[in-house]
Amino acid sequence: MKQITSSQNPFIKSLIQLQEKAKARKQSGTFLIEGMREIELAIKGNYELETLLFLPDLVSETQISKFKKHSEVIEISKEVYQKLAYRDTTEGILAVAKTKSLQVVDLKLPENPLILVMEAIEKPGNIGAVLRTCDAAKIDAVIIANPKTDLYNPNIVRSSVGCLFTNQIATGTTEEVIDFLIKNNIHFYSATLQNSTSYHTQNYTKPTALVVGTEATGLSQEWREKATQNIIIPMQGEIDSMNVSVAAAILIFEAKRQRGF
């Protein structure tokens, strides 16, 4: 089995770039996954692995044997692992995986889909939290309109607890996403303060997309003007917004309730 013991190894240096720079991930078409569960979910989600790296102090050859049919396996030293590991907690295993095409037109939807659209969400932690909710509700697709963050950012991989791989995800401009929804006869409901009605009064049992934006600026005008209906979550306290992951969860599970879970 191949071994790498120095963090100055050119291959290891290239992996450090994958962790730190979106440009490196884009140019190589690869990214790093850390953690046993996350790697297993990536394989289940049909992500192609190129290389598996493990620290024998924490992971045995027996544990990683199941991955050998998916990728090359390399034993690494503690020094190398500490350079690559993104988490504070250690699991001793990482994988280099190929990114996927995230075109909206490539989405495979059922006859009566339930979709979540996020527009211009910047914080990786918020995206990861929303992806966890979408996995819990087992919705049909997640679309990120006007993305501000590289989807393969290590913090999204981490904060989504692998749900980056369990959801069907696409990205596109707001114009592309709206055009896709209209062409596919999917009703979309924009969560916004302007010209809105309470979210629970709407019917989400037909093909539906729920659209959420940032807390700071909300959704762009195009989403508000072209929506089937603008919706709002009634707020009874002093503030007029909540974290986007919480708002998304409320809307998604109302739709799931109407659909009989």
Which keywords apply here?
261 residues, alpha/beta, 7-stranded parallel sheet, single chain, 5-stranded mixed sheet, 11 helices, 12 strands, elongated
Shape: elongated
Structural class: alpha/beta
CA distance, first residue to last residue: 48 Å
Write down the overall mean pLDDT.
Answer: 95
How many individual β-strands?
A: 12
Q: Total number of helical segments?
A: 11
> Helix share of residues?
25-40%
Structural features, described:
The chain has 261 residues and is α/β, with parallel strands linked by helices. It has helices spanning 10-20, 22-28, 36-44, 61-64, 78-84, 124-137, 154-159, 163-166, 174-183, 221-226, 244-258; strands at residues 2-4, 30-34, 49-54, 72-76, 93-98, 114-119, 141-145, 169-172, 187-191, 197-198, 208-212, 229-232. α6 packs parallel to α11. The longest helix has 15 residues, at 244-258. The radius of gyration is 20 Å and the shape is elongated.
List the helices and strands and how they pair.
Elements: E1 2-4, H1 10-20, H2 22-28, E2 30-34, H3 36-44, E3 49-54, H4 61-64, E4 72-76, H5 78-84, E5 93-98, E6 114-119, H6 124-137, E7 141-145, H7 154-159, H8 163-166, E8 169-172, H9 174-183, E9 187-191, E10 197-198, E11 208-212, H10 221-226, E12 229-232, H11 244-258
Helix pairs in contact: 1-2, 6-11
